[in-house]
# Entry
Amino acid sequence: MAVTRMSLDGYTFARNPPAAGVGDIATKGKAAAVVQTYSSADVFEWPATIVGKTVTLSWPFIPAGQHTTLAGKFEAPGSKVWNPQDGTGKSYNVAIIDYPGTSCKQYNAEFMKDVTLTLFILSQV
Amino acid sequence: MALTLSAELQAAQDGQAHRPICELMSLSMTEALPLIGQALTSTTTAADPDVFTHSSGRLLAVYQNHVALKDTLHYVYTDVARTEFTTVTAVTMGADGDTIEDIAIVELVGGNVGILYTYISGTTKYLVYEIITVTGTAVSTAVITSWSTATYWSDGLDVIRLANDTYLAVYCKWDGSAYQIYKLTSSNFTAWTGPTALSIAGLDAAKKRREPSLTQIDTGEVWLWFGYAEATGATGEILSNVYHSISADNGATWAAAVKLTAYDGYGAIARYPVAVQKAANQQHLIYTEVSGSLKLENDLLYGGSIDYTHPATQLHYDPVSGYLYCMVTRYVNDALAEINTTTWAVDRIWKAGSVPAWNSFYSVWEPLACTNALVGSGRYRPFSSRGALGMLNATTNVFTDYAFDDYTWYDGDYYGLSKNVTGYSVPASYSTTVKAALVDETSRRLYVFLRQGYSILSETFYEFGWIDLDSAGPSHTWNKSFEVGSFSLSGGSDWGSPMYDVCIDPDADLMMWSSGSANCELVVFSIAAGARLRRYTNSGYPDFPYGGITSMVHVDGYVYFTFVYNASYNPESRGLGRISLTDDTVTYYRPTWATLDSYGLGKITVIDSGAKLMIAGYYGITIFDVVTEQWTLYDNAAIPGLTGDGADQFICAVMDETSRMIYAATAGEQTTWTGLVGFLEAGFIQWPKYLLGEYTTSWAWAAALPFVSGHTDGDVSVCLDPDDNSIFAFWTHYGSDTSDIWWDKESAAMDLAPLLITGTDLVAEWSVDDSPNRLSFELSHGHLFDQHNSNSLWRPYLAKGRRLTLRQGETVSAVDYWASQGKWVVTETALSYKRGDYPSVRVTALCDREFLARHQVVASEYLTYQPDAAIEQIVTGEMGWDAGMLDIPALAGGFVLNTQFVHTSVGDMVDTIANRFGYFAIMGMDGKLTLRPITVDGATAHAYGDTTKLIDFTPDDTFSDFTNQVTVTGEEQDYTQGILAEEQVAERNGTMGWWGCKNTIRIYYSEDQQRRCIEPRLEQVEIPAPLFGLAGSVSVSLSASDPGYQWVEITISAPDLRPALAAALALYLVGNKIPDIAPSTGGPTWPVGRWAESAGLMACMMILGSVANWQFRIHAAPLSYFRRSVQATADDLLFQAQIGQVIGQQIDGWCCYSQSHCQEVADFELLLLQLQRRRVRFSKVGHLQDEVGDTITIKHPYTGATIKLFVAALKRIYRQPEAGSTDGGLVDSIEGWVL
# Structure
């Protein structure tokens, strides 16, 4: 069975992050406030939404080509469409807010290790 | 008064779990249409926009930029949320001199953008398609067709994507034998079929079609709109109306043309039609009305039928409000009209019988002022009749009368216009006539020039001076600058000559007038010194116009004037004259637009700070450039349809120097149509209008209304906002020689609540302390609300003065329930840009009370109303608020006030009245101004039965002190009469003698004849000595006293001795003729004659010596009238006992006319002091029911006792917590007074 790879701003990842490296995108965030009163408490709840949620994608390493592309996406401002290919069929407009990693070279192959791509979800497409 | 919530919202608010919702709408403060607009470009050469909404939500537009060498075509797009414009250059002409003509834009299947445009290179016109991506990247382009511009006239271009995803384009062109509308069709925007001439019945092949545009409405019908040249005038002018033709088969066939607009002359025509469908069975047709002038006939200015002999005069324009004022006058003042130049409609008319009405004296007696010599300023408009001057303050809608003579009764009719200008007087039997007046808002003076004469036609004395514009009345002090007799100027004639014009220039300290007929002269005075500076006559200055000056202005030491041409005395003096006040030289400037002797120039107006003069006259309006000495004439030849009857005669003109609109009044023997016209200094008026069409069984179109407020805006393109279906409009805004693209949005509204930054507070505050309600919050996307970011479409939403409305509520079972929380006005916005920081914008808004607080009033109307009616009168009269914006209850304890405010803000007036009766004024949550009582007796509006909603509780008497006694003083409303000690009130002396007398002298107790005295007593200081033989017959006596106590009459009498003198003289003469007699011969002779002569002489001498002085004094007891002081005291006896001291406070009570009034105020002030000592602060879970001014109960957190309190201040804080936090919710922070 072919692996379905994530895409970001039209780029299909050469290598998906491992399952453990994908942040939670299954649950929405919900704002809730609790007001403690003198003898009780009230709670205020706002509708749950995926908007505003931060998702991190982590790789132990990625090929140099993928790094170059992702770095270009990171440096370009504006929102991008991210399809997590999580089986829900949903895509998201995201902003890339962080992209750290370490450059490595081994056996004459260049790659990046310990890469983390932090996506901020702006809206669902 | 607590809000009444829906049952669902009430239950939710009372509950423990909440699902809060918030709506913060930004709305326009004005009507949705007409649009006002803001600039998209600042190139000064951009024009001809076309716009549409892309299926992605982006707003797309194109426009052309006519640059010096190569025209460019610009493409503008927004993001899908339509927040920001991005502009790219899509096409640049290849060769110098190539010009882009027409542009159209459409969304292509697949999302790309298709542009059709025409350009001219040499003598060839090319029609080109250009395909670009939605963000402006070029895809492909090619020429579709071309033709020779030398052979084929052509105009206009439009393209649409039909519902069947094919493209239909149209343009107009002369085919060599007929004018046609051609179509092109395509299925892919690259391969085009055609052009094919449309077959549309009802059109003349010899008449031009112009500016075609297409829409396909929801029925599938394709509507073709175009301008149709119905007629062409002798000089090429075109009569154009908007027509349409409908195709029910995607443009294959077309129905007969239908005319929609009904312009019937060359003076105004319809061009550039475009349409948009906002709803089923509804269309907006927008077109540009192109006209030479705007017109308002005098019927409209008068507010009823009136013939053309009643012209508009005395024009003045207020550039701040945009209002134009004029009088409609024939022999009397018929009406005063206020014209809104934005809508070009009469806004208000005042006359006898209007509301408010001016005194009918102004409508019955002719003004007699010099024509156009009553000069208004801002929203002050003076007018006159005889010696009375009326003044309208259009801001407050109040008239003020300045009566220089008494017109209580005049010619047998009652006007009740008593003399109220003090310090001004005329000799007995003289009458006063107002000749000129000028409102000077800088010095706050009303300058008035008066003529005093035996009759209204005589010219005997002149007097010039001023009245303080801020004088509250009812009497007004006259400040005389100078008084002079005309005979002292004109060489002996005290009948003078008719006055032609008066010029008052306070900035230059000059006042001058000109007269004509027998004594043609120009007299120049210094206002400050009251001294004559110059007097020009033809005899003294041969170049001075023999026939006199008819109109004049002063500019930088020169007097420019128009005059009566005289072929005999000054045959070479023509056109416009100029006198130098420095060297007295006279220069003439002859208009270049005609060769005449008399140019019929009349009223002069200074424009552009004296760089130009605008002159109304017999041949039109002419502008003279003082620097270049160039002349420009505006008449019906230059501007077809300038006036209603084609006549060119004008009486006066003014200019809006910002828009360069000239407003002029027609009048004179040429005219059969009188009224006002408005026209541009350069070019034609272009005013977008719209027709609303609705379909029932057929399309019906309403009357045209303004679509854009400006008069220099045209060629509109429109599309719809996909979210709220409102209209986006882009158009060309013209300057005098520039053009740019402007845009606006109908009913632009935006909910700002989704942009509230989590973790920050939205705070709404209300208080009883007379401060405006306050709203503050912080939004994301601050850069889009930056007022200096012209690329932003969101910029208008937080512009200063923008209306904000706040609603809060809860979602209950998926249904939103709301409670209004009030209306505010954006007052402040602040944001900053810093690398690494997100540019949020912090917003502060205040309620409409801020307008009341900022609006200063010099003098209010004299208020004789109940307090609630007084507040309504102040707010509606001074602020112009509709009564619907007020909800003022009748005030408990209210009585008819008798007061006037001076130099006070409207807010202070309202607060003063409200506080006097124990109320506070506030903008309620419904957005209306209301009053609520500060009371200890209020019913409990909300009872909190436990502490489950209480967050914190703090007794806090910080703002209290030890004052425990309040004394309020006032004055009775009525005067009390008192008698003062007797004093000398008058003294007189004189001489009496043998000639006899009986004089009765009326002596007033004071010079102003107003003083009243009783018990007059006569003291004779010098009593005439008894005359010869007349002792006891000389008397000085108090013979009568005024029942009104203002005077006494003293009678002085002495006998007339002239008969006795005659007898004595006769005796003397007779005695002189009587010879001596000898009673006996030789005896002594008796000189009987000499005896008689001596007796007669002695008697004569005695009588002639009978002259004596008299002197007397009048003593009387003056009556005094005063208002008695009243006072009352309120004591906090308990607190006095507690501290063992009485700490008092004295207050001057406002409108305290009796002891009980004082007691009311003292009790109220003491209550406030007591309440401040019982002040607490606490926070609780927010509840939308609670309002400031409510009486609520809560439980003491320690004792559990019920505390009843008055909510004096409420701060409602709404916060959605930021991620990872639970700090938020809806909290009420309250300052309360425990009752």
About this structure: Chain B touches chain A at residues 16-20, 758, 811, 946-953, 1180-1181, 1197, 1215-1219, 1221-1227 (CB under 8 Å). Chain B has a mean pLDDT of 90.
